[in-house]
Amino acid sequence: MNQCPNCDITTSQSRCPLCRTKLADAEASKMTVWYPEYDIKEQKIRTRISRLAILLGSLAVLICFAINLIVIPQFLWVFYVAVAVFYVLVSLSHTILSASHIGGKITAQVISLTILLLVIDFMSGNLQWSVDYVVPFLIIAGILVLSISILRVRLNWTGYFSFLMMMLLMGFVPLIFYITGVATVLWPSVTAGSFAVTIFALLVVFAKQTFMTQLGRRFHL
Amino acid sequence: MDQWYRIDNTGKIFHAVSDATNSSVFRVSMILNEKIEPKYLQDALDIVAVRFPTLTVRVRKGLFWDFMEHNDEQLIVKKEKEHPCTPIDRKENNAYLIRVLYFEKRISVEIFHSLTDGGGAVEFLKTLIFQYLKEKGSEVETEGLVLSPDDSPKPEEMEDSFEKHATSHAVTRPGKRPGKAYQIQGTAFDPPGINVIHGVVDAGELNAFAKSEGTTLTGFLTSLLIQVVHDERMTRDLTDGQVSIALPISLRRQFPSTTLRNFFSVANIGVQMDGYMHLEDIITDVTGQLIKKTDKDTLQTGINRFVSLQKSLWIRGVPVFIKYPLMKFGFNQIGERAKTMTLSNLGNTRLPESMKRYVDRMEVILYPTRKSPINCGLGTVNDKLTITFARSIAEREIIQAFFRRMRTITGLEITVYSNEWGEDE
């Protein structure tokens, strides 16, 4: 044991934990190791990489904004870049690098892609191809991928419940677009809505007990 | 087994407020007299996990409240590599909100606070160590002091004791909003992490000293802490004001309960400091407040208010994505601003005689938060008290002053050690 003359405490460590005074050589004080040696460098690198990604993304948008203003200020194409950078950053941090639930990743992709497409379409003049065709089929694809994932895990599907419910509700968004006059083509919207209803019906028929149990738990007050 | 549990009344708050700067993960550990053998620890955990169903759960998202479901995956013991109380990444921990770690002679249990409080965690740790020793072939008996892994979980261990002990569900207005307490400032570690400094002292002698000062061990340490925090403030900005220590109070002592879920209240002990306050004055003030604020009627009022609030249809009917940010705002603006630091004393943990010789001491680590960047945890076993400061800031003057002054005042031997996070050589 080492004694710190400043703090008047004993310690088995080579430096006083309170005032950091060196009390003994590391060799001489090889007694009990209380904690692991932390790899702080790796943590620092990880933090710096994510900060760097955000910085580079913001920098790219700023440079494009400057070029945009200098070259063709009457057409702000920089918004295309900004929304694409946003989508890439979200995809990187959530879909690729995080260990989130696969259901969450699918749902996040559908939502962020929908936003990306809506912005691009809106920037091009008015909302047309996105709300008429691409968004309904994107939602159908999302529901389909989620359903396939559920079939793969079978009994363990309850973790997908809230994501599936969210996606099924999203299935009606194209119909809302059509009813409100934003979309002009009916059949893709009807297809998305019908697909959501079909999956919901299949769920109730084949997994009624689990479905009802989960419903009770998810909505308990 | 398809068991599910509502999150208890206190647990809901931790769900709402936890984030990168507030992991809501606390740790209880015991240091054994021999190096830990992970194989036996895993064998023990496989058995003990079944005995504590409310701790071995996963959290599911609900619209109005999240809830907990039984988790079928194996809870795996891990060698300690990170700093204490790192946020629990549910996806990397088989969706568990609890982790069991080992390092050299230490077995640690880190738990997300929504599952249980210190009392529940200690019961789990005791049973785990009991089973670990059995797996190693040691002759140990529960002696009525450890929950036997062979017994089935009892319904009363899984109950929400807040609801059981609430005597009125009428919504009552909270008392006067507590005043703002002094808050410790400092430079956050980069990269973020938690530094812990433990001080081990003879519990019996310290207790006797506290009694001679006319207070309890908690009362004495709280008073000392208030004094050193104020002194530190004076050297920093020459101002006086309120220093408040939040003391979690286990309700099991006053309200009969064997629940393994959260069942505690918090008493804020605040002293209006000025340059003329001596330690004796602080002790008198703190002791008086402790008696008043841990009185059964006061605690009962707190339980009733707490339960009535969460029974309110207005609150229950609001979806979590609205409710959680509001709860977080309330926690930060009302709860966190009213305290300087939290000091949690888990008391004296009694072990069976047959187990005592295998255990040296225990540690309690309480996660710091942004507004409370230094917190303190106390745990006693085998007459050894370990005082642990956990901090997320580089400044350690308060901790240094605390141990130095404790040594000067009591004359007791203090053995100090640290995990050295963020310390430059």
TrEMBL record, chain A:
The lineage of its organism: Bacteria, Bacillati, Bacillota, Bacilli, Bacillales. InterPro entries: DUF6320. It comes from Lacicoccus qingdaonensis. The chain crosses the membrane at residues 52-71, 77-99, 106-127, 133-153, 160-179, 185-207. This is Uncharacterized protein. Keywords: Membrane, Transmembrane, Transmembrane helix.
From TrEMBL, chain B:
Residues 151-166 have a biased composition (Basic and acidic residues). It comes from the Bacteria. Residues 143-178 are annotated as: Disordered. This is Uncharacterized protein, contains a NRPS condensation (Elongation) domain. It comes from Lacicoccus qingdaonensis.
